[in-house]
Write a structure and sequence with these properties.
By secondary structure, this protein is an alpha/beta fold. It is 37% helix and 15% strand. It has eight helices and eight strands. Strand 7, helix 8 and strand 8 form a beta-alpha-beta unit. The radius of gyration is 18 Å and the shape is globular.
Length: 210
């Protein structure tokens, strides 16, 4: 049996890759990479969603952000398209390629929300873990870098032009919807963690209080 491992880009950025690669191999894991252009695929799905929308499309890449907006600010003009996050697209590809014939796949996430979303898919021979869970379970004690910027920062939809508004914290969501700004745009880019997933609760060694 081979234990395949996908390390999400945010977690991978916390270390020197050569050291991380060696550490996980010593624990019996074989790191793997995606082959598909899931970034481009997801971006085009949103382009299509906007083209056919009569209201404002909400970015679904961050489950915590999408859930927060839907629970507190859901209005008829807000549209929540069934577009899976890039991490899930990648996991589906890897599961099809590697999780078969007795082999297993572990997919790491930068936050608990993406782990829960992955768990809900019920993928055979595939486990989703936050990065903190993975390193704790397998004794990875490498020194982490301090990330001042996310490898996946806000701005994913910049090429769509002025019809996009970017928000990267739930406090910014509150102010935005209080002013009803969503009525004048086509797409809300929404990230729950301030400035991106490098502040996710699955990679921070200490999670800040609300």
């Amino acid at each position: 049996m081979t234990n395949y491992l996908w390390i999400n880009p945010v977690s991978a950025a916390l270390y020197e890759w050569e050291e991380l690669d060696q550490a996980v191999r010593e624990q019996g894991f074989l790191p793997v990479q995606c082959q598909g252009n899931h970034i481009g695929l997801v971006r085009e799905k949103y382009r299509t969603a906007i083209a056919g929308a009569s209201g404002c499309v909400v970015d679904m890449r961050c489950p915590m952000a999408a859930d927060y907006i839907k629970e507190r600010f859901d209005q008829p003009e807000l549209l929540f398209p069934p577009i899976q996050p890039i991490l899930i697209h990648c996991a589906l590809e890897l599961q099809e390629r590697f999780a078969r014939s007795g082999d297993v796949l572990t997919v790491t996430t930068p936050c608990a929300a993406l782990k829960q979303l992955g768990d809900g898919l019920g993928l055979a021979a595939t486990t989703f873990q936050t990065w903190n869970e993975f390193v704790q379970d397998h004794g990875i004690t490498l020194k982490r870098k301090a990330l001042e910027k996310s490898p996946i920062p806000p701005g994913f939809f910049d090429e769509f032009g002025k019809d996009v508004y970017t928000l990267s914290s739930h406090k910014k969501f509150d102010a935005f919807f209080l002013e009803q700004k969503h009525k004048n745009i086509k797409l809300i880019e929404a990230l729950y963690c301030e400035e991106g997933c490098h502040n996710g609760d699955g990679i921070l060694e200490e999670v800040p209080a609300e």
